[in-house]
Amino acid sequence: MNDLMKVSSNPHVRSKSTTASIMLTVVIALLPAAGFGIYNFGPKALLLILVTVASTVFTEFAFEKICKRKITIGDYSAVVTGLLLALNLPVSAPWWIGVVGGVFAILVVKMLFGGLGQNFMNPALGARCFLLISFTSIMTNFDCDAYTGATPLANLKSGEAVNILDMVIGRTAGTIGETSMIAIVVGACILILFGIIDLRIPGTYIVTLAIFVSIFGAHGMNWPYISAHLSGGGLMLGAFFMATDYVTRPITKRGQYLFGALLGILTGIFRIFGPSAEGVSYAIIIGNLLVPLIEKITLPKAFGKGGEKA
Amino acid sequence: MAKRTFNGGIHPYDGKDLSKDKPIKAVLPKGDLVYPLSQHIGAPAKPIVEKGDKVLTGQKIAEAGGFVSAPIYATVSGTVKAIEPRRVVTGDSVMSIVIENDGLYEEVEYPKRKPLEEMTKEEIIECVKEAGIVGMGGAGFPTFIKLSPKEPEKIDYVIANCAECEPYLTSDYRRMLEEPEKLVGGLKVSLKLFDNARGILAVEDNKPDCIEILKNLVKDEPRISVKELKTKYPQGAERQIVYATTGRAINSSMLPADAGCVVNNVDTVVAIYHAVIEGKPLMNRIVTVTGDAIADPRNFIVRIGTNYHELIEEAGGFKQEPVKVVSGGPMMGFALFGLDVPTTKTASALLCLTEDEVSQMEPSACINCGRCVEVCPGRVVPKLLAVAAANGDEETFLAHDGMECCECGCCSFICPAKRHLTQNIKSMRKILLAKKKK
Fold this sequence. Notes:
The structure holds 2 protein chains of 2 kinds. Chain A is built from 14 helices and no strands. Chain A has helices spanning about 20-40, 45-65, 75-85, 95-110, 125-135, 135-140, 150-155, 165-170, 180-195, 200-215, 225-230, 235-240, 255-275, 280-295. Chain A starts with 18 loop residues before the first helix and ends in a 13-residue tail after the last helix. A 6-stranded mixed beta sheet of chain B has the order 1-14-13-17-15-16, sandwiched between helices. In chain B, strands 2-8-7-4 form a 4-stranded antiparallel beta sheet, with no helix packed on it. The interface between A and B is large, with 44 and 69 residues.
């Protein structure tokens, strides 16, 4: 019998789920939206997705190689970032936008702040906002072979009529992955089914926004108007895939409700009172920055000190 | 109506199929028996025998070393070979009495007891105290203290903890199947101490056969009922089982008695029966010897002091070399350096695994997924506590209710980044508890 058995403190068993399995599930859940984007906008969308993912993964690899750190691309978190970023680009964007965005997301937002788990804002969204500010005309040009002109939300803002059915299915102008509510919700169901996310943040976010636009949208309880707000402008993609990003959302339950409500209000303010038709990206980024404060005021009560029911 | 469960918790692979259908078998020890003087919480027992003394089975060999302490009895007949430090399951060296077994098992004459109806409360508590009974679920707290709270009339519930939520363990399960009348008998004895209390047998619903047997046994007992609990780890943790059965919540600085409850594990309740009704001190316990390295996993009734090597032998030895051997269950048990340690009053299982999941999985960066918060039965934030603990930041640790952690291991189990959360928190708690004692 072996004299040197393994000794460690309890517990001695571990669950099967790993960081890599979680990230891979997120990648799979994003595929319906990506697939619809490619179908909707053509093969150029596929190319942009591949370039962006390659850029994020390579940046992480190169950074860790240069810094002589452990290579962590095997956890698929860089793939998630690249895919999310690509789905937030317009199909008309040149390939180097994907490269620049990918490098910014991983190098500046993620690795320079300490790598996975340390970034204070969602890398994909950080990069998107960086691109929006630096290359505004490219990032807001939604003209392509399939569609010309503005996104449905821009039309809505200027008072034009929008086709809700097209918005739900995704037959509209917009970024590659944001247009199809159905495809995104299918992905969201995968995440919920596998226990990766729950409805606390997306649910509060969507409901708060619906209430906000019905009060301040100057259309009252007008269902087509509210539905257009909910199915357009990347809300679904943002609510289910970006606001739920583990690293940059509060870890406390009550904090998650607060975070969702905050995002709903911010998005509403940006969309209705701001100059732009959209506001999801900025709302989530500002929300991300407030997470430490939210966590501080929403720490749970311990069992036996009033927290047993929560 | 009280809840049937608590918030949080996990569902690990339970491994109970390996040994649950194997009846309890008695093990007769062949080699020396070792009795560590510290098998309980509190002061070590004081030896009352000397090297060379002849002892009989059931003879007291060490007396309580203080108020919070418990006496120890010989479980075989033989000669005291030595009183010296010996290795125990935690890895510590503890002063122990070593008895050379003469193989005759000559017993002392046990005291004749009066019928239960004629015994006073003081006499019952004295029997439990003298028998050396301690919490056999793992904590090892002297039972007579639990049974004598300041205000016994304020106890509303006497709970027999039959949850057995630890994976792999089937010792309580077999006890309930094979000797349910002793369990109910022990509970009746306990109830005699608390005039206003009701007895509850709290069983997880993965043991429907036990629930049926127990329900049948207590159908004519107006003061005793069976409560089915959801199967979930750590349903049998003291604070969680009190909450699940009564809806009352206690924190780490309270005792179950503060919520009007007394909680005892199955084997402890049976030991109370043996002590008060049969006059026998605590001499044996049921141990599940199991794991994928064991040829014939089963449940044994083991004389305290028996060497673990003998238990492995009785279970057919190893069919495959174990990589990790745990005394107790996989969630809260102690990993062993080697098998040359004795069975103590608190040893519920011997788990032999051919794989060590802990060393196979390297911890990686925390992704803030929140699963540790989701599963924590103490409703604290393990992620924050583990960081505070690793940084030696006692202030933050205490501010975030680190002392409310019960070290159940749920957070480490669930963590996808395989971080050693429980371990970090446990070390810090140890440091803080030691400071508090000073």
